[in-house]
Request: fold
Amino acid sequence: MIINIRGTSGSGKSFLVRHIMRLYPKQVPVYVSDRRQPISYTLSRSGRKLLVVGHYESVCGGCDTVHSMDAIFDLVRSSPCEDALLEGVILSDEVNRTTKLSQDGFPVVVVNLSVPVDECIRNVNARRQTKKPGATPVKEHNTRARVRRIDRAVERLGAAGVATCRLNWPVAFKFCLKALGLPRPRFPRIGGGSQ
Reply:
């Protein structure tokens, strides 16, 4: 299963992947000669392997840390892993390579995060202020335009026969867990109890 998480900046794509990565006891970073950071990770759990493309050594991770779109899709195509997890703004409005991957028999599901754009803008501005206090706020019209481009791209993928869904963050997380055969983690309740 290849799961492609899509959404604009601040929608929680990297956050979602980081939560999934924590559920794998074995994580092996994959390095190539021209990079300091990993180009991908191979994660293992109960004999099932997951490819995660890009690195997560910075706040914004994933495919946005890989130098080209072709390199991203080459990694997926050549991976011996049963599953792959991709995310990044760079991929969020891509159509042709994803469609070709699906047409070539790879089981692709595109998950479009339905986080309200105003929340995404707040998240990006908060991240900018944390990194550099006094930073210029994000240009809201650019973010809103990107959301429209992402939605159109996902519609085009669906029309081309690629499996797509639009999910809020908690449902997207549960969907990924189920698709990857992962148990649901137990999160502590407020007040210190467990659920």
